[in-house]
Write a structure and sequence with these properties.
Keywords: Lipoprotein
Helix content: under 10%
Radius of gyration: 47 Å
Oligomer: single chain
InterPro entries: FN3_dom (IPR003961), FN3_sf (IPR036116), Ig-like_fold (IPR013783), RTP_Phos/Ushers (IPR050713)
Shape: rod-shaped
Number of strands: 30
Protein name: Putative fibronectin domain-containing lipoprotein
Strand content: 35-45%
Amino acid sequence: MIQGCFFLESEVNKRRVDNTLSKVEGIRTISDVTSAGIEWQLPSDIEQISGYVIYAIDDKKTQKILHVIKNPFATHYYVGKLKPQSSYNYQIAALGRQNNISVKSENITIKTSYIDPIENVFASKDLPKQIKIFWSPHPNPSIQRYIIERRAENGQFLRVGVVPHRLYVEFFDQNLEDDKAYTYRVLAESFEGALSLPSKSVSGITRKPPLPLQNITASNNLVKSILLHWDVPQNPISPIARYKIFASPMLNQGFKFLAQTKQNSYKDQNLKDGEIRYYKIIAVDADDVDGEMPNGAVEGNALPLPATPKVIAARMINGNMALLQWRMPENARQIAHFKVCRLANGGSKVCFDNISQEEFIDKEMKPQIKYQYSVQSIDANDLESLPSQSFTLGY
């Protein structure tokens, strides 16, 4: 505790140095991390002393009055708010009762100590999107909290968290990238705000994402839908909880989330006939870690319409009947039957269905009426092709 009252600095500086006053001697010091205590012996001519002046000396050897004690019986002084592991220099002079001052004492060098580093720091290697850092409690009871730092890409350690109690010895660094290593160190902080030496650096790594899925297939033979299928991952890093499916009408861009499923198949429905879509599928583990989006995509398409028949003959026979003959393109898929539609001059339309041969004879024509004929193929799924070129016949 500081005793006495302050003198103005100018008043101290006006005093004359008196070599007959006893120089302050018998000086001892004690220091900790952020403070120091100074002790001295009472001068032998105490009856001539009115107090003491404490001087601080900076790195440039410049002196400044730190404190003035107006009590001749004081023998102790306390300095606080010092930096750990730092050296400080002081001197003491005795104030006389006759507006005089003694010669300054020998130089007093004080070196503050430090708080030992935290021991036994560890970092996890397999947690999803986070790393757990944990350590042994610091044995010093003056510790108030812990500061956790992570090394940035430029090599500097930056604070990422604070743990508020000496016996609370773990921290989770969260929202990290998958399968990436991070380096940490931990510092202890005292109630006075002094930091310990940094702990040894430790490295942790986040969990790897699920591996890419294998044997992804997409159908091309289903009506207005595409069936996706893939292999169930064997021996995954972490149990697989579900799959996410992304789709796009383009191969290299525009992929948007379509659906998720717990099964290893999915049917994309309500598509247009012949619609082509591209798919990317990823696994998601039980901790919501997404697998990496694959570079490539699998192509699927809904079943297209059957091929349109090519009419090879359209003419009148026997004067009052129309004959149409057609052929299917090479490599066309199997057709169940055909349909011929007839449009008369006034607008009524009649269709003849379930034609199994590649020809049709219209025996129901009426004179003086022109008819337009077209042919469509129909497959086993009842999908109808586009109409063929139309032909006009009549008599």
